Hints:
By secondary structure, the chain is α+β, with helices and mostly antiparallel strands. It is built from 2 helices and 10 strands.
Amino acid sequence: MKTIIFKITILLIIPLLLWQCAPLSRKVEERRDRREKKIQEGYAGIKEMVHSGLYEFTATRAYPAGYSSVDISGTNNYLTVRYYDVQAFMPFFGVRHMADPQRQSGISINDRMEDLMIEESDGRHRVLVNFTAMGESDKYRITLDIGPDRNARLTVASSKTSTISYHGRVSSVEPEEEEDK
């Protein structure tokens, strides 16, 4: 008798549970669709911004090679791209392979970019920007990896210093008035 009641109870509870789980499945699917749409829109915006040539990277954290990360959110650091012109000042933490008494303590660039290469990764929804630019007394290889949420990693390599990476955000820059004319 107990087994019959148990079987009837199970037969009534299982459909009820399945009926209750169906809305949860739809909510999960809707959330997944919204998230995918947000990622696609962010990725399209990043591609448009990078191809416009008007963007700025601001770092919040530095990752020197072989050392602990450093919080630099309170410092004035930037890498600004206006078409092919690059201006940058980033603090440097690491090893200098060649001493230069005239050199500032950070990475300073005010030049035109060379060897520009933009790679779009549709599968990963990321844009990779590679270029070289001349600093005060050194040539830098710059790599900027940007995600759909505008979080980015900037890597600066040079023959005179150790490689350093920065984590931060990318934002759009308005064209200057003289460039509009």
